[in-house]
Amino acid sequence: MTLPILPKPGDACHGFRITAVTPLPALRGAAVQAIHERTGAKAFHLAADDAENLFSISFPTPPPDDTGLPHIMEHSVLAGSERFPVREPFFEMLKMSMSTFLNAMTGPDCTYYPVASNVRQDLFNLADVYVDAVFHPLLAEKTFQREGHHLAPAKPEEPAGALTVNGIVFNEMKGAYSDPETRLYFTWLHGLLPDTIYARNSAGDPAAIPNLTYTTFKSFFARYYHPSNALFFFYGDIPTADYLAFVNERLAGYDRGFTVPAIVSQAPWSAPRSCEDVYPIGPDDPATGKTYLMLHWLLGSALNGA
Ligand SMILES: [Zn+2]
After folding, report:
1. Who surrounds ion ligand 1 at CB < 5 A?
2. Is the pLDDT reported for residue 86 higher than 60?
3. What is the pLDDT of residues 226-262, one digit of tens each?
4. Identified catalytic residue from 74, 92, 158, 276
């Protein structure tokens, strides 16, 4: 096993300070943690003897409500940026790169932008597009309307007829909500963790998505998509210093901004609770055998040392 050259704790490295280096024999690698001194951006390199490298940027994006703001943001930042002003850089990258993984995901509390490749230059090319997408997206109002919601004729052949809500995320979530098990997932999150951000739907409830305004959308971006709130994750055999130099160059011009405070956990309950929800079925479908039941136990925290 040959690990890439590792820095030492306390080292200064391309605008970053190395805060910890932890050998991870079980993973045949080491974890390098670093913080960008000017902006506070965090970096974590899982250094391993593996030519398949991964570069990922994530931001904690606590949803303010059920409008799916973090999800619509994820779609929209990948719809053109200052240096790559094409409509769908994401799909261009898919077609033209040697990536082994390329995606973007909205979680309940965080949004991730990972790319992976076996070819070093390919990886940095892809990372360049992603970094520009998350820090300098165009975020035009038209993009927000297309990805989020807008009104369109209910029947395309009757352009002056009745209007209905349309939008890529809106339609995606209408599809998701038509699956009873997806509904069940959101219902239990809401019922189980009512006092936390997990009670809100970061992907978007179709009933709430049309309430999202472009102004709220833009201010969410300014607050959360800032280096001070960013976590860079790298995996593989490219030296930590090379990754940090790449990131540092792209954080030029940024100072310290907003950092999301730690997420508050749900306070334990004094007694068990139950909650119920309903879902639609076809007009001719029998209602028998269509009930879902779910039971949860509190097992403890998954956090390190908690
Ligand atoms: Zn989506």
Report:
1. 172
2. yes
3. 999 999 999 999 999 999 999 999 999 999 988 888 8
4. 74
101 assigned to some structural domain: yes
- Distance (Å) from CA 182 to ligand 1 centroid: 14
Residue 284 in any domain: the answer is no
Task: Say how many Å lie between the CA of residue 205 and the centre of ligand 1.
Answer: 12
CB 145 within 8 A of CB 212: no
pTM above 0.70, yes or no: yes
Is residue 281 assigned to a domain?
no
| Distance from C-alpha of 177 to C-alpha of 179, rounded to nearest angstrom | 5
Ligand 1 centroid to residue 126 C-alpha, Å: 20
Annotated catalytic, 249? Answer: no
Q: Residue 84: inside a domain, yes or no? A: yes
**How close is the Cα of 57 to the center of ligand 1, in Å?**
17
Q: How many domains does the chain have?
A: 1
Domain that holds residue 71: 12-145+210-250
Distance 187 CA to ligand 1 centre (A): 20
Domain of 72, CATH number, reads: 3.30.830.10
Cβ-contact 53, 120 below 8 angstroms: yes
With residue 123 as reference, give the H or E element that holds it. Answer: helix 120-135
Q: In 3D, which of 123, 131, 126, 143 has the Cα closest to residue 236?
A: 123
